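User: what does the whole thing look like in 3D?
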Amino acid sequence: QSALTQPPSASGSPGQSVTIACAGTSSDVGRYNYVSWYQQHPGKAPKLLIYEVSQRPSGVPDRFSGSKSGNTASLTVSGLQADDEGDYYCSSYAGSSNFAVFGGGTKLTVL
Amino acid sequence: QPQLQESGPGLVKPSETLSLTCTVSGGSISSSNYYWGWIRQPPGKGLEWIGNIYYSGSSFYNPSLEGRVTISVDTSKNQFSLRVSSVTAADTALYYCARWDYASENYYSFDSWGQGTLVTVSS
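Assistant: Here's the predicted 3D structure for the full assembly of 234 residues, as structure tokens:
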């Protein structure tokens, strides 16, 4: 069982927006502003999309945005495109004994 | 961004030790801004953090794996390595090495990943 809880699937039509939630606890998501999100296409390594809850690395489109409220973080993908299909994982720092706890992943389908 | 490449046996027998090496190119493993980590992904499943190491040798492990896992670093070769002892079929997974940004731009996240290497535990 994963430490963070994500819905197993999400979907939307091209151009629409979809939000993926990531539920943690007061020991991880709720305690630290170090939530990150990763995108993984089939057969590929994960790619960093969001760090520090809402910051985008260089090169990531602003269609991807992150937020946090209490023990739950969220990733919103706006203006859905076909290439956005894939698996999305959230992760949170949980102290020096647990650098990264991951969610179970959400499979995003663009209808 | 640096390039990371995992290497090691793709098949390990139960009860034996899994050993993998990650070679970093295009950047120094001795940078004070980063840790270097291992993450695994069982077939069809999610990601699991295994552990991180700093260039000084300071290491941190997933509590669920501690006791079986050792991560070491060789700064002269720009490499870090993973050892998992007493493996079972549950250790079958795609193993990734990655860079953990500690004090640069992408704070507290894995910002560069290797392509991954599949390790199967089977007799």
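In plain terms: The first strand of chain A starts at residue 9 and ends at 12. The interface with chain B takes residues 2, 32, 34, 36, 38, 44-48, 51-52, 55, 57-58, 89, 91, 93, 96-105 of chain A (CB under 8 Å).
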